Amino acid sequence: MSTIYDHGAPGRQAVALPQLGKVEQGLLGAIPADLRRRDGPRLPEVSQPELVRHYTALSRMNYGVDTGFYPLGSCTMKHNPKLHEDLARLPGFADLHPLLPPEACQGALALLWETAEHLKGITGMPGITLQPAAGAHGELTGMFLIKRWLEDRGELGRRTKILLPDSAHGTNPASAAMVGFTVVSIPSDRRGMVNLDALRGALGSDVAGIMLTVPNTLGIFEEDIVTITDLVHDAGGLCYFDGANLNAYLGRARPGDMGADVFHINLHKTFSTPHGGGGPGAGPVTVSEVLVPYLPVPEIARKGETYHLDWDRPKSIGRVHPYFGNVLVIVKALAYILSLGDEGMRAVSGGAVLAANYLKAKLKGAYKLPYDQLAKHEFVLSGEGMGNGVRTLDVAKRLIDYGFHPPTIYFPLIVKEALMIEPTETEPRETLDTFAEALLSIAAEAREHPELLREAPHETPVRRLDEARAVREPRLKLDF
Amino acid sequence: MNPYLPHTPSDIRSMLDTIGVSDVEALFSDIPAEVQGWNRPLGLAPHDDLAVHQHLTGLAERSTGRGLIPFLGGGLYDHFIPSVVGHILSRSEFFTAYTPYQPEVSQGTLTWMFEYQTMICELTGMEVANASMYDGATALAEAVLMAHRTTRGKVVLVPSSLHPRLREVLATYAWGAGLALRDVPYTEAGRLALDGVPDGTCALIVQQPNGFGILEDLTGLKDCLRKTFLIAYANPIPLAVIEPPGSFGADVVVGEGQPLGNPLSFGGPLLGFFATRMDHLRRMPGRVSGQTRDVDGKTGYVMTFQTREQHIRREGATSNICTNSALCALAATVYLAALGPDGLRRVALLSWEKAHALAERLADLPGYDVAFDGPFFHEFIVRCNDPEAAVGRLRRAGIAVLPPSFLHPLGVHDGFIVAVTEKRTPEELDRFVVALEGK
Fold this sequence. Notes:
The structure holds two protein chains of two kinds. Chain A is of the alpha/beta class. Among the domains of chain A are: 4-59, no CATH class; 83-339, Aspartate Aminotransferase, domain 2, CATH 3.40.640.10. Chain A has 15 helices and twelve strands. In chain A, the strands form three sheets. Chain A has a seven-stranded mixed beta sheet, with helices on both faces. A three-stranded antiparallel beta sheet of chain A has the order 10-12-11, with helices on one face. Chain A has a two-stranded antiparallel sheet with strand order 8-9. Chain A is globular, with a radius of gyration of 25 Å. By secondary structure, chain B is α/β, with parallel strands linked by helices. Chain B has two domains: 65-80 and 340-437, Aspartate Aminotransferase, domain 1 (Alpha-Beta Complex), CATH 3.90.1150.10; 83-334, 3-Layer(aba) Sandwich (Aspartate Aminotransferase, domain 2), CATH 3.40.640. Chain B is globular and about 85 Å long.
């Protein structure tokens, strides 16, 4: 695998910049000697054709939603509309400086205000901040809000625990810990839902709140959701909902109605903005009435047709982002909300849940299904007991040979050898059929030709990589 | 039919038959009926593509600020972005991919991450870099949390000259973690005046250049600190020509990577870069790509040292960060590769030259002065009696600078801050001077 440093020759450049000529030495001389850089940074020296070919070659070693089916559970890898990419590049958004006075950026503020209003409506919650840059950042913001609320009530030293179902995303306990909360795990029951007796046992005057994922990471809707939030509220705690799975009930139910006090929305999941190979996303947070006073400043407010920034929030947690949040991601989300409308949003959740249950029905005979409930937008199979020592990892790698991106594997932690499949609503039925056939064929191969799985993938630019070696002999940058 | 929803009525019928239910509503019987009954639609009709395009274009055109000549800085800067950057970024194999959890089909992402880590280490003079954070401000906050985890100290020394927005975000994170911020004053030259390191200090922050645009002298700082972290927050562009913080023993170098090939974007998405020493690797937040070999002995890349991360370590993780700013880091990688060492030096020196030329001319105007006499890079404070009036005159001349109130948290009430990049033309500099001359 070549890197960009393997290309080019001294003196080559991929862009023509203005000449400095004779002034260069003079300029360098103007930099005080004690500040002047002794050895310049070693950066690539490549011409434009070399640069373009190298990165085009790299792109071809990647698999994206535009390449094919990407049923990565918990990640909602739906189609990323092309129109939205163009809209986010409009100079009126992309080239606008965030520290311009509000009167010079009315359009951008209107964009944020409109999106905020829609997201409040969709979640049924009265307050919002668009600042968080990702889902985990939204979780952290939520934990800050709960901490400030406790502080304001004089309960900070007393309520120190955050309850978490054992099926939670890893970001949840990590976010709670960053704000100094102690995490208490609540087991799931046989239905894959929160064990109510365990919850009752854990609730007390030392509990700050609970973090729930709805539907949970097994793809199962907590049927007792209203009871759960009532129990937590009665015990004096607040309810955080992880919105990673909003695609399951978009336009049909609202977290605010279920008792959520804080809810983060992954715009890069439910609202179709691309994942960028790991980011950027956006994680707006909506809140119940009780937390509105603590939201980050400034609030984007409207008076008549004019937008302004309202700093009058004396109990605010402060800022979690230096400016307004990931605005270009928000452009795409607003475009998506408009294109769908109410009816389209219901169709999104309907299609997502239909696709998940369809695949589950096709696959449950060939793979273990530890929790055979009605699925929401995703479901979890297990690769346990496939025979011949075949593991979930082998199934995942063999799927690559069939031209598919593997599902999420080994998560949630409560299912052994988990295969977490989230098809999304944007996949045609034919794609779902081909994928199901591939997994059925792989199940047969596991019995008859297990080596095909264990040695997979076969046709990729690299085959299985030695991860232990990467830790044992760390090479995290080029050695020159 | 919505273009993103391919299921036809007959698809839906046959899928429902396979599942064994009568209609789609039956798939939602597990959501309590009362909860579904409480739902309220937005009252929003579906928009066709043309209507979506017109609505968003209308909003984009409503922001008049884009027509002004930008002398705006305050952490984000208007540098030239070569066309190759946008073209590479629009390869959808890059931008429609998820985090590279399956390395065999993610070598593109993992390879450029490795290149990016190399380039960030080269710029900062450090040994290891992560694959990005959300933005410079949260990268700084995470660096402070890392210093706290390492040293157990609860006091953070923060320069009074730190960019106000960085300070605000840091204050939120520090309060969340129970840390105290303590101010470090500045000299008449606008530079850090460290007057001792109290017991229990986990980190000293130095911004390079600082919130006034002044370049700090990092010499000897680490000697005063011993085990306390030296955290440098650096603008990456001047690092082409000034000695990087790594040379002065910095434990962590973070910063805002937007100037490296990313547009202003009304402040987001941005790019936080984060680099440290190998000794601190296991306490570093964020993803890292590492080189290894496959079963055939071929070189390849994987995400490595994942036991630091939330999906493995949960509440014991070094950070909760998951989604980061990958695509912005790719922009920075392509930008740095396109410019090369010579191009980056030119961008830095051109910005330097133009900023200093403007500063000299403004200092010659009666009633105007440059606020500090410390060396600056491409941003400086103009001192005058009535900054609001001066900014108003510039605005009427079609020029945008930051509102004077931006400097109030830094204790500066008699000036405004001006940033100049290589993009500003001689005519634009003239216009700036003429506007303040009032002729």
